């Protein structure tokens, strides 16, 4: 009987190497690629850049849509007629160099490049773009200037006092104001006085012949002018108190509606804030702040902080206060308070956190009030004061140790010096 054991292959023997069929390696790589990403077209056939950007920004917060959209539109203008999908890493680096040459701050440049990286990451992961040209795009380093944007308690008090004085009623005086008197009072031009009078619906009184000879074109009633102006200053006063007392973001203040503020039995109020990442939190409002806020006209769905005299829509609904308008008003009040720095509304949020920590507020309470997702963000405000240093807590130097004068020290090479060194 023939021995057939030699025809058996041991189980530990290596398998014979067989050349794969043509295209097997490529098909395997293609399957791996499709497993990582859906089988979508490699290019946007018939899709414009605007449609792609709209898909990328769909459902994002309004501030993100505005900021990210401006960054991508600026890149489109820099690329010229070339579409966004054909941009390379070198193109994006050239754009970064161009906005740096324009003198933009590092924080602004970083925000724009973050938006561009987000756009190309979205296009690569979900829209079939081959490669991510912004993957290796470096972001500029930004100096942490948080300490420079924190007001002292004295500066906040001065700002509040100036805003309170402006919100007081007009002093006793004539019953009417001319456009020339208002222009001199506010530092406006006559055209702006007329524009404001029309926007705020100031009732125009008859102009006499003596007024015409003096160059007066319009005359307004004192009560009408004072009511509108006082309403604006009360709004600014309430906005400053609200930002500092609650630590709210500017977007949360602007989106506040009448139904979001609920008075309490202790004289204060409970405010519902809709913040970043669609998170809602409730913050207690002190009674002193609610007393000022209650003077503003409120409706259930109307904005609490509105643009005085401006309306929107056909139903004459009050228009909400704009971000730029609020920033300009607070910066002007800070200048009147003798603060030379460009104070922004967000500085009051920083000051709230810093002052609360200095006065002994627990860290988790400040985190919940400000709406921080992580306590690490709140820990940024744990900074030392300007007159505080860790050297004051050392037992040798900070504990009252004295330093011998230079004349009392043994000279080098003297007998005392050789004795101490063991020579």
CATH superfamily of the largest domain: Topoisomerase I, Chain A, domain 3
Integer tally of domains: 2
Please report the first level of CATH classification, the CATH class of the largest domain.
Answer: Alpha Beta
**Low-confidence segments, ≥5 residues, pLDDT <50?**
4-15, 37-43, 310-316
Biggest sheet, spatial arrangement of strands? 1-3-2
Structural key phrases:
Topoisomerase I, Chain A, domain 3; DNA polymerase, domain 1; 8 strands; three-stranded antiparallel β-sheet
Question: How would you summarize the topology of this molecule?
Answer:
Blueprint: H1 24-36, H2 49-57, H3 62-79, H4 89-101, H5 106-126, H6 153-166, E1 176-178, H7 179-186, H8 190-199, E2 204-205, H9 209-213, E3 219-221, H10 222-246, H11 250-254, E4 261-263, E5 269-274, E6 280-285, H12 287-293, E7 306-312, E8 317-320, H13 323-336, H14 346-358, H15 363-370, H16 375-378, H17 415-421
Antiparallel strand pairs: 1-3, 2-3, 4-5, 5-6, 7-8
Describe this structure in words.
- With 423 residues, the protein is mainly α.
- It folds into two domains: 27-143, Orthogonal Bundle (DNA polymerase, domain 1), CATH 1.10.150.130; 155-346, Topoisomerase I, Chain A, domain 3 (Alpha-Beta Complex).
- It has helices at 24-36, 49-57, 62-79, 89-101, 106-126, 153-166, 179-186, 190-199, 209-213, 222-246, 250-254, 287-293, 323-336, 346-358, 363-370, 375-378, 415-421; strands spanning 176-178, 204-205, 219-221, 261-263, 269-274, 280-285, 306-312, 317-320.
- The chain has a three-stranded antiparallel beta sheet with strand order 1-3-2.
- β4 (261-263) and β5 form a beta hairpin.
- α7 (179-186) crosses α8, α10 runs antiparallel to α12 (287-293) and α10 (222-246) crosses α14 (346-358).
- 22% of the residues are buried.
- Mean pLDDT is 78; it is low at 4-15, 37-43 and 310-316.
